[in-house]
Specification:
With 243 residues, the chain is mainly alpha-helical. It contains 10 helices and 10 strands.
């Protein structure tokens, strides 16, 4: 079984890359990272998570390019092809932290990516209308509640190590669990309704259910967590910087 998992995960990663990138840019830009940078990436992911989110981490988080994982029901993820937007990721990271040290920039980027789920809990943003590409996005209290409830997965939890990602030309970035995005339920619209305090009924067999109309509303709201997270990483202010 273990031999089957890795090829399946690689196919999912390639699918994610194809969805996240335009046809012209289907191949990730960072397939030829210097050896020292690759080694620093792997070492950073093997090291303990920093306990303090510093100014360099925050500068990188502000530039995070949030994508949508195509796995299962779909969920927000840090774009593994272009985590800082289109272009040379190492160069963009060096620019963000004002350093000429490529390995350090890669280290800080990996640390910031691992700190992303914590940042959602450590920062705050008022509901309102925020710029987001060509059209503004209206962030609501519901979006914020759902962002804080999402279940994040590390690359290892997806069955792939950093070397596997790098070999495919991608950065080993975290993703919200597309199968159980809000906790324990694969029936995620019901779990969303519970989080938001909306009507949930228990059926004769003991399972929980919501109305068809509410299910459609929750599925649409789930799709909106991608732009909601994009706005949040760019605009939210830290309430604390320690884990």
């Amino acid at each position: 079984m273990a031999r089957l998992i890795q090829p399946m995960r690689r196919q999912l990663l390639r699918l994610a890359g194809a969805v996240l990138c335009s046809p012209v840019l289907a191949r990730a830009a960072d397939n030829d990272l210097p050896r020292a940078v690759r080694q620093r990436i792997v070492a950073t992911l093997d090291a303990p998570l920093p306990k303090i989110l510093n100014v360099q981490h925050l500068a990188l988080i502000r530039r995070f390019n949030i994508g949508w994982s195509p796995v299962e029901s779909g969920a927000p993820m840090l774009n593994p092809a272009y985590p800082l937007g289109k272009g040379d990721t190492v160069a963009l990271a060096m620019q963000a932290i004002a350093s000429k040290d490529a390995a350090l920039a890669a280290q800080r980027l990996m640390e910031a990516s691992l700190l992303l789920p914590h940042f959602v809990q450590m920062a705050d943003l008022k509901p309102g209308s925020y710029a987001n590409g060509k059209a503004p996005f209206t962030l609501t209290a519901r979006h914020l509640a759902l962002l804080r409830q999402q279940s994040w997965m590390t690359p290892e939890m997806l069955g792939m190590g950093a070397e596997d990602y790098l070999a495919e030309g991608y950065w080993p970035t975290p993703s919200v669990d597309g199968k159980r995005p809000y906790g324990d339920f694969t029936n995620y619209p019901v779990e969303m309704a519970q989080v938001l305090g909306l009507p949930v009924r228990q059926q004769a067999d003991g399972s929980l259910a919501i109305t068809p109309a509410l299910r459609s509303e929750m599925k649409a709201l789930h799709q909106q967590t991608m732009p909601a997270l994009q706005v949040f990483v760019r605009e939210a202010g830290l309430r604390r910087n320690t884990l």
